[in-house]
Design a protein that fits this description.
The chain has a single domain, classed as Alpha-Beta Plaits, CATH 3.30.70. About 15% of the residues lie in helices and about 15% in strands. The chain has 4 helices and 4 strands; from the N terminus they run βαββαβαα. The chain is globular, with a radius of gyration of 16 Å.
Length: about 130
């Protein structure tokens, strides 16, 4: 198993996991609606709410703390939008940044993140021709 490649942005005050799981959950944030259904099923409280990139106060996303996830599959099973997938641990850690639009937990390299993360779109203003 490779060393964990990401630095934390925030301090996590939760006990360390004894060993990496065989698999881990990764959120495809571009499809996440922020409904928080996954949070209620997580037995280790490793899913965090993240403000959305365009309308941070209105649209929320979720992010999984990969170092805390135990691979139980409950979040993926009960996500009504099917935006959480289970990956082998090493693969999941490797692809997580490319599926992340906004992260409050990890300090991902911007060039590794989802293309929509590079430059959040400004809300468009529609001009009336009247």
């Amino acid at each position: 198993m490779a060393d964990f490649p990401y630095r934390y942005k925030i301090e996590i005050d939760k006990p360390p996991r004894p060993r990496p799981p065989k698999q881990t959950a990764v959120v495809e944030q571009i499809g996440c609606t922020g409904c928080e259904a996954c949070i209620s099923f997580c037995p280790v409280d490793c899913i965090e709410i993240v403000p959305g990139p365009v309308y941070p106060d209105l649209h929320k996303l979720v992010e999984i703390d990969l170092e805390r996830c135990i691979g139980c599959q409950l979040c993926a099973r009960y996500c009504p939008w099917e935006t959480i997938d289970m990956w082998g641990y090493d693969e999941g850690v490797e692809v997580a940044a490319s599926m992340t639009v906004r992260s409050l937990i990890y300090d991902f390299e911007p060039n590794e993140m989802h293309p929509d993360a590079e430059a959040p779109a400004e809300p468009r203003r529609v001009e009336s021709g009247l």
